[in-house]
Amino acid sequence: MACLNSQLDKKAAVVELIKMRLSETPNDPRLWYLLGDVTNSDACYEKALEVSNDRSARAKVTDLCCL
After folding, report:
1. What is the pLDDT of residues 48-60, one digit of tens each?
2. Most buried of the four, 13, 33, 37, 57, by CB within 10 Å?
3. CA 54 to chain centre
4. Closest Cα to residue 40, out of 1, 14, 6?
């Protein structure tokens, strides 16, 4: 149980760090797809595509995989 709590704490810390960086550079598609990787959120991949003007290959591949 302690191991699971530790993993959840680390995940929360990573999410918080990415969100902090996004507040500084909200148009960085790399941060959006990393947030999508951590949270498994399709909306983050879609946002990565949006801020990259559909030019982020990484976000496109991940978004297609989630269809």
Report:
1. 989 998 887 666 6
2. 33
3. 16
4. 14
pLDDT score for 1: 62
pLDDT digits (tens, 9 = 90+) for 8-47: 788 999 999 999 999 999 999 999 999 999 999 989 988 9
Contact of 59 with 52, CB cutoff 8 Å: yes
Residue whose structure tokens are 């498994």: 40
The residue written with tokens 């302690």 in the block is 2
Can you give the length of the chain in residues? 67
Question: Which bin fits 26, alpha (ψ -120 to 50), beta or left (φ > 0)?
Answer: alpha
CA atoms of 59 and 6, how far apart (whole Å):
29
Residue 52 dihedral angles phi and psi, to the nearest 5°: -95, 5
